[in-house]
């Protein structure tokens, strides 16, 4: 239950949930790609991505000037999908 609580606390923002959902279907995406697909300003997005990376939810790699993010903790997708399937929401 502690792991579930950690996941919920770390992803408790609509933008963070959208990032997880977007990355769940991709191997990795650049900050620019994520920003465009979610229509979120890059500075705000970077704040969310950095926080999720520091908590171990995401990992990143650098390729020149681009930073690519991917899901490190795949269990996050299961928790979000489980909550999304609740009938009371």
From TrEMBL:
Domain HTH arsR-type: start-end pairs: 1-89
Keywords: DNA-binding, Transcription, Transcription regulation
Lineage top rank: taxon: Bacteria
Pfam families: HTH_5
GO molecular function, one term: DNA-binding transcription factor activity
InterPro entries listed in its UniProt record: ArsR-like_HTH, HTH_ArsR_DNA-bd_dom, Metal_resp_trans_reg, WH-like_DNA-bd_sf, WH_DNA-bd_sf
CDD domains, per the entry: HTH_ARSR (cd00090)
PANTHER family listed in its UniProt record: ARSENICAL RESISTANCE OPERON REPRESSOR ARSR-RELATED
Protein name: Helix-turn-helix transcriptional regulator
């Amino acid at each position: 239950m502690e792991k579930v609580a950690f996941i919920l606390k770390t992803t408790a923002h609509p933008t963070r949930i959208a990032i997880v959902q977007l990355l769940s279907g991709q191997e990795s995406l650049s900050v620019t790609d994520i920003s465009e697909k979610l229509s979120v300003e890059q500075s705000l997005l970077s704040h969310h991505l950095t926080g999720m990376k520091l908590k171990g939810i995401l990992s990143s790699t650098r390729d020149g000037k681009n930073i690519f993010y991917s899901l490190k903790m795949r269990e996050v997708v299961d928790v979000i999908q489980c909550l999304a399937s609740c009938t009371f929401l």
